[in-house]
């Protein structure tokens, strides 16, 4: 960040001409642009604003002949389904329609216009194509923003299944032509910009004092005022008198002309000056955007916010609000049901502490003036292509454009660095002889169970023991989570603790749902869950949960309260609560369909489906009824989106803890199958069962060999001492709920249905006694003379693709399978694909042959791999094992489940393997993409020696040099949930003798 003294140079001798492009995403950008434009015009310059916002947004603040407004919309921002929800696919499609399809004509028009006004500088907030148009016109450009659209859209691409991937690269390329970025507080990672200048908050000035505003509105100083500010009041939001505490008034922004409100609400006029209204209020209730964020901080007005769905700008603004004691999160359903009181009361108790500068508009205008006058601020002068960087997936991961070997600059940090790196963990080793009688951690006594000397369990217990103690000021980010936990556990009662690891997919992967043999290794990283049950009358409730219950007037009833540590790393709410009665429909549990819809109401809290969903599955599948309240703490070290089954670890650990707390005796295999129900039926992710089985049934340093028909553990295969396995994270986020995994699964089930149909037709023909000639399906009856009828009968009733041998597939069926098929064409011919957890989209084209071939051959590869593990320890053994991994990897690619990052990692392993230098012999022998593919991690096999570890470290560094992302390496193993069992702990009495 440059010293502010450098920012303002001497004023130019002649007026400068600025072309200021404003994004089409709402009014928030326009309102902050006004503040910069106002100062540029005050300096005597001419500003042409290219915008889609109404004129009054600008003219109400700036009345000058030097302000020119040009109504052109060159991007669309995020398309919102309502005030809180972004339609991700619609956003990408709208951007394509607005900025991609007419791109050439846009560039030609803008270059001509920029030359016609003789612009000295192009400023963008933050329209991508403006930077490219400026470059084509030979004019310098600068961006002023706190986020960039490549950052926002990258998550949408994940939801769209990569159909609009090129949009992100194009946006990043456009931004790369910008000379530098003027970065606003609360900024997101923006790697497309190679140079940056930080400025203070850009905030609109206040026109009238608090007293003047209240007098004009007829509100006394003794009245508490909340301003309701959601950027426009959508239809269907009916605000009720009883939603406000007694003595409160609510100022409503953006209401429609025909909306009527109770007497304790005041509908503000369309042209009401919002900064004055915010500064005159005691708190604000709304959604976080840069305008509301900056004004809340600047005027020290507590902000009660409701999360927006799928907008990655928000967590960075939210963290800054909370750091300066200016933010209170409201649960969405409490917004719509009127349980506002506890949040408003909490807001009044805050003491906002932001003391930073609020003159960012003036400072930014000074920098722009100096740049337009010829001053050079940039430290790097590189061309657009060479300066191109990467787009971010879900805000925290890098997704590469293949082949672009440009490192991210040092000032750029992944969100894991922004929010605090996850501490490294030592290797997990177990000691089953530890003494139970001496087991205690801090203030807790272990009444049952054995923690197996697992360092991560010891760390979790120590964290649990200190939750109700004072929080260090350097940990403000974690304070809300800790306070939430301390407020729900009764520390004098028993707490049940369980542990479940993630898994490394060594072989088998996406063939599990087709019945394959799989080989899976439980990893060192695991999820810990602490559960406590209490009678509703003794359960400590969060204030909003208590208010919701009191509003019903029925007395205490069972409640589930959940806290998830580390939630901010994935932009989800850290807490969740619900009445247990929400899971009941009269005397019976609600259906899985209703549960899925219930948890999907608020995407910021949808994560709770993995946890609370275990309760419903126990109710439906085992007939369990819960009469007590349940408090749950989830703390997972299994990173999300890396293809190592973070969700399975959460599900297995949670269900294990709930079962232990309620005296339920569920074996590991049955528990895994129940957890798969959670993911398939409530979360809605079409996963197989191998993840949950490994997490529940696995053992340290062994491969779980399981036939997924549906879940038969064959054996636990020891990993030979000369062999070592690693997982390397590509940094590209993987999700089995994403479109690619589901489409491949559908393609496999389509293929199975076609094979069964073909076999049935052949069988009918053969039984009819046809001979000598080709039948209607192109198969000669001679094919089935020897045992043909028996084979066809088995194949006509094929339950799992993996039961079809590869030679039969090649000899009889491969030529019957189309490469791909439109969903409707398949449905017209075959009616259904008979997969209970996926639905065919009639308009979509599905790849069929490759997804069908993959599990058939993968099952063979896994069997060969398992057999080879017992062979003598030679390089030939390791080479053969590695070759099987490579074959699996390329089969994934043929299915469409590859990714640039995982492909790069596999190639780096191959380079090390085949290195022929005299000083180095390859000790790595193979690698493959893991799990559901489309990103995530790769599994690497090598010799267990120091040289292998050094080569893995070198691969990490080379990957970072190429992509800017330093991979996380998974190494080591730990026991599954069944082996761990559960701990029953209780805090020692303070009066107890030592």
UniProtKB/TrEMBL annotation:
<dbReference type="InterPro" id="IPR012369">
    <property type="entry name" value="Galk_glycosyltransferase"/>
</dbReference>
<dbReference type="Pfam" id="PF10509">
    <property type="entry name" value="GalKase_gal_bdg"/>
</dbReference>
<dbReference type="InterPro" id="IPR006204">
    <property type="entry name" value="GHMP_kinase_N_dom"/>
</dbReference>
<dbReference type="Pfam" id="PF00288">
    <property type="entry name" value="GHMP_kinases_N"/>
</dbReference>
<feature type="domain" description="Galactokinase N-terminal">
    <location>
        <begin position="492"/>
        <end position="533"/>
    </location>
</feature>
<feature type="domain" description="GHMP kinase N-terminal">
    <location>
        <begin position="610"/>
        <end position="698"/>
    </location>
</feature>
<dbReference type="InterPro" id="IPR020568">
    <property type="entry name" value="Ribosomal_Su5_D2-typ_SF"/>
</dbReference>
<dbReference type="InterPro" id="IPR053205">
    <property type="entry name" value="GHMP_kinase_L-arabinokinase"/>
</dbReference>
<dbReference type="InterPro" id="IPR036554">
    <property type="entry name" value="GHMP_kinase_C_sf"/>
</dbReference>
<keyword id="KW-0547">Nucleotide-binding</keyword>
<keyword id="KW-0067">ATP-binding</keyword>
<protein>
    <recommendedName>
        <fullName>L-arabinokinase</fullName>
    </recommendedName>
</protein>
<dbReference type="GO" id="GO:0005975">
    <property type="term" value="P:carbohydrate metabolic process"/>
</dbReference>
<dbReference type="InterPro" id="IPR019539">
    <property type="entry name" value="GalKase_N"/>
</dbReference>
<dbReference type="InterPro" id="IPR014721">
    <property type="entry name" value="Ribsml_uS5_D2-typ_fold_subgr"/>
</dbReference>
<dbReference type="GO" id="GO:0005524">
    <property type="term" value="F:ATP binding"/>
</dbReference>
């Amino acid at each position: 960040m440059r010293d502010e003294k450098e920012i303002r140079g001497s004023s130019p001798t002649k007026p400068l001409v600025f072309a200021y492009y404003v994004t089409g995403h709402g009014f928030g950008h326009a309102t902050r642009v006004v503040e910069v434009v106002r100062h540029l015009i005050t300096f005597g310059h001419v500003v042409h604003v290219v915008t889609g916002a109404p004129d009054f947004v600008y003219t109400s603040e700036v009345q000058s002949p030097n302000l020119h407004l040009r109504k052109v919309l060159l991007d669309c921002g995020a398309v919102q389904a309502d005030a809180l929800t972004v339609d991700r696919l619609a956003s990408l499609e709208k951007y394509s329609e607005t900025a991609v399809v007419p791109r050439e004509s846009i560039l030609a028009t803008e270059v001509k216009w920029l030359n016609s006004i003789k612009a000295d500088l192009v400023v963008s907030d933050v329209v991508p194509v403006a930077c490219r148009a400026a470059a084509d016109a030979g004019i310098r450009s600068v961006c002023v923003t706190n986020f960039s659209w490549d950052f926002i859209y990258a998550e949408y691409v994940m939801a769209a299944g990569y159909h609009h991937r090129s949009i992100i690269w194009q946006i990043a390329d456009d931004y790369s032509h910008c000379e530098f970025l003027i970065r606003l507080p609360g900024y997101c990672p923006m790697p497309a910009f190679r140079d940056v200048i930080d400025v203070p908050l850009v905030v609109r000035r206040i026109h009238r004092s608090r007293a003047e505003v209240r007098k004009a509105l007829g509100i006394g100083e003794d009245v508490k005022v909340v301003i309701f500010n959601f950027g426009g009041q959508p239809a269907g939001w009916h605000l009720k008198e009883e939603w406000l505490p007694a003595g409160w008034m609510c100022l409503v922004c953006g209401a429609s002309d025909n909306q009527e409100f109770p007497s304790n609400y005041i509908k503000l006029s369309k042209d009401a000056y919002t900064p004055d209204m915010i500064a005159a209020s005691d708190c604000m209730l709304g959604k976080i955007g840069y305008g509301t964020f900056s004004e809340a901080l600047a005027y020290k007005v507590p902000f009660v916010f409701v999360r927006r769905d799928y907008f990655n700008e928000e967590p960075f603004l939210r963290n800054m609000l909370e750091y300066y004691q200016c933010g209170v999160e409201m649960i969405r359903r409490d917004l719509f049901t009127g349980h506002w009181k506890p949040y408003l009361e909490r807001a009044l108790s805050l003491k906002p502490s932001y003391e930073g500068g609020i003159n960012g508009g003036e400072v930014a205008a000074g920098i722009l003036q100096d740049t337009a006058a010829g001053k050079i601020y940039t430290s790097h002068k590189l061309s657009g292509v060479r300066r191109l960087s990467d787009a971010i997936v879900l805000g925290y991961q890098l997704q590469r454009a293949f082949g672009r070997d440009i490192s991210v600059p040092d000032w750029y940090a992944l969100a894991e660095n922004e929010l605090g790196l996850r501490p490294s963990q030592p290797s997990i080793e177990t000691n089953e002889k530890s003494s139970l009688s001496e087991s205690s951690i801090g203030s807790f006594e272990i009444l049952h169970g054995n923690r197996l000397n697992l360092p991560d369990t010891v760390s979790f217990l120590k964290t649990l023991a200190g939750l109700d103690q004072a929080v260090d000021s350097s940990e403000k980010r974690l304070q809300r989570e800790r306070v939430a936990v301390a407020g729900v556990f009764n520390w004098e009662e028993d707490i049940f603790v369980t542990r479940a690891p993630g898994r490394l997919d060594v072989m088998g992967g996406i063939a599990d749902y087709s019945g394959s043999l799989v080989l899976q290794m439980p990893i060192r990283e695991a999820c810990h869950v602490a559960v406590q049950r209490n009678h509703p009358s003794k359960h400590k409730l969060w204030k909003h949960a208590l208010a919701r219950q009191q509003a019903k007037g029925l007395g205490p009833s069972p409640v589930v309260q959940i806290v998830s540590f580390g939630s901010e790393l994935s932009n989800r709410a850290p807490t969740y609560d619900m009445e247990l009665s929400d899971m009941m429909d009269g005397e019976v549990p609600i259906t899985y369909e209703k549960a899925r819809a219930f948890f999907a109401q608020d995407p910021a809290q949808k994560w709770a489906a993995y946890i609370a969903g275990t309760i419903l599955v126990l109710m439906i599948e085992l007939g369990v009824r819960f009469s007590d309240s349940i408090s749950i703490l989830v703390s997972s070290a299994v990173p999300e989106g890396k293809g190592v089954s973070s969700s399975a670890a959460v599900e297995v650990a949670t269900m294990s803890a709930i079962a232990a707390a309620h005296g339920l005796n569920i074996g590991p295999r049955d528990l895994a199958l129940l957890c798969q129900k959670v993911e398939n039926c409530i979360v809605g992710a079409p996963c197989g069962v191998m993840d949950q089985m490994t997490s529940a049934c696995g053992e340290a340093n062994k491969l779980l060999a399981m036939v997924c028909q549906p879940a038969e553990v064959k054996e636990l295969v020891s990993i030979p001492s000369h062999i070592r396995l690693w997982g390397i994270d590509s940094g590209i986020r993987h999700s089995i709920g994403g479109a690619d995994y589901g489409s491949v699964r559908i393609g496999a089930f389509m293929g199975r249905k076609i094979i069964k149909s073909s076999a049935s037709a052949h069988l009918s023909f053969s039984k009819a006694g046809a001979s000598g000639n080709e039948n209607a399906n192109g198969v000669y009856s001679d094919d089935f003379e020897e045992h043909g009828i028996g084979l066809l009968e088995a194949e006509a009733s094929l339950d799992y693709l993996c039961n079809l041998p590869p030679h039969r597939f090649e000899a009889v069926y491969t030529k019957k399978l189309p490469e791909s098929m439109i969903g409707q064409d398949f449905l017209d011919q075959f009616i259904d694909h008979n997969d209970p957890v996926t639905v065919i989209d009639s308009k979509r084209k599905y790849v069929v042959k490759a997804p069908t071939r993959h599990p058939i051959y993968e099952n063979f590869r896994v069997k060969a791999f398992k057999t080879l593990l017992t062979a003598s320890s030679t390089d030939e053994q390791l080479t053969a094992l590695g070759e099987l991994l490579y074959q699996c990897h390329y089969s994934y690619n043929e299915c469409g489940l590859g990714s640039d990052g995982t492909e790069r990692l596999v190639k780096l392993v191959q380079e090390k393997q085949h290195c022929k230098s005299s000083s180095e012999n390859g000790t790595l022998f193979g690698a493959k993409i893991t799990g559901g593919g489309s990103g995530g991690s790769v599994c690497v096999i090598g010799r267990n020696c120091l040289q292998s570890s050094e080569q893995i470290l070198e691969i990490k560094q080379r990957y970072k040099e190429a992509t800017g992302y330093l991979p996380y390496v998974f190494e080591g193993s730990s026991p599954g949930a069944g082996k761990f069992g559960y701990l029953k702990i209780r805090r020692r009495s303070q009066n107890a003798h030592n």
